[in-house]
Amino acid sequence: MTSFAVVVTSYNYRAFVGTAVDSALAQSRAPMQVIVVDDGSTDGTPAHLRERYGHDPRVTLVCGENGGQLVAFQRGVAHARADVICFLDADDRWEPDYLARLGELYDSRRDVDFVFSDMQLFGDEQRWMGYAAQSRDLGFTAISTYLLMHWYGAPTSALSMRALWARRTLELPAELGQTWRLSADNCLVFGASVLGAHKYYLRTGAVHYRIHGNNGWWGRQTPATTYLNRFRSSCLIGIYARSIGLDERCLESVKHEFRTKPDPSWREARHYAKLARLRHGSWLRNQQHAASILWSTLKRRRSRAAARPATD
């Protein structure tokens, strides 16, 4: 069976972190490790963690100087020994069957490298948030991410990946630690896509994402921060792309990447049709490639509709 390590990162979240850690420890499919990384908190969190979990063999406490979220991820992953690493923010929580749901997929699909889930928002806002209404095998996503900056992922607490991919995505220049003090889930999501992970969206309903006044990213969005986040993300994607020699020649493989998706959505088909039109060479041939992508998706959708049992 697939083993799990849970990396919980915290900065000045003494009021919340115990709930997050307890939700990881209460999983019906127990994790091999729960690694709690305190990123230089000044609100008494380190002492609180030591008192509460210092003698619990299931928990590894990692306390250090403040370095930001990316550095906290790197510190946590360095201690992980399990097959799959799941990430959990200190102000969020999971329902008890979350790892069991992930485990069923990772056990049966050894080809899947990265799984993300939907989320239930709570606190100052209550609503559901997810990538799609149904679970979906997203196949490979490198070209779409590299050229369109498409986001195949979720906020931190709904992300998991095989340990090899977690380590690869976090192999970044040290100076990027300052750039990604917040929103470092971009590194996990964009990095895994560009480097070639096979992605899967699994709707679980088991991730609870807390909305409150201290949310580092959610609570501080302005036009300027939105622009800066996109600009930094574009630079980040470029770093990953250069590390593997990915450039615009990948447009020749657009159709091949699209074919790795067993059940693409119409939205996904439009993304890839747009990419097909960007290829170098004949305008007419590019239009034919785009039309082929859209037509193949339409045929699949019609075939599925025809196969559904009739209802009164």
Summed up, what is this model?
The chain has 312 residues and is α/β, with parallel strands linked by helices.
Explain what the structure shows.
There is one protein chain. With 312 residues, this protein is α/β, with parallel strands linked by helices. 43% of the residues lie in helices and 19% in strands. An 8-stranded mixed β-sheet has the order 3-2-1-4-10-6-11-9, with helices on both faces. A hairpin with a 3-residue loop joins β7 (119-123) and β8 (127-129). α6 (163-169) packs across α8 and α8 (185-195) runs parallel beside α9. The model has no long low-confidence stretch (mean pLDDT 93).
Per-chain topology:
Blueprint: E1 4-10, H1 14-25, E2 33-39, H2 45-53, E3 59-64, H3 69-78, E4 84-89, E5 93-94, H4 98-108, E6 114-117, E7 119-123, E8 127-129, E9 136-140, H5 142-148, E10 159-162, H6 163-169, H7 176-179, H8 185-195, E11 198-202, E12 207-211, H9 223-244, H10 254-258, H11 266-277, H12 283-307
Parallel strand pairs: 1-2, 1-4, 2-3, 6-11, 7-12
Antiparallel strand pairs: 4-10, 5-12, 6-10, 7-8, 9-11
Helix pairs in contact: 5-8, 6-8, 8-9, 11-12
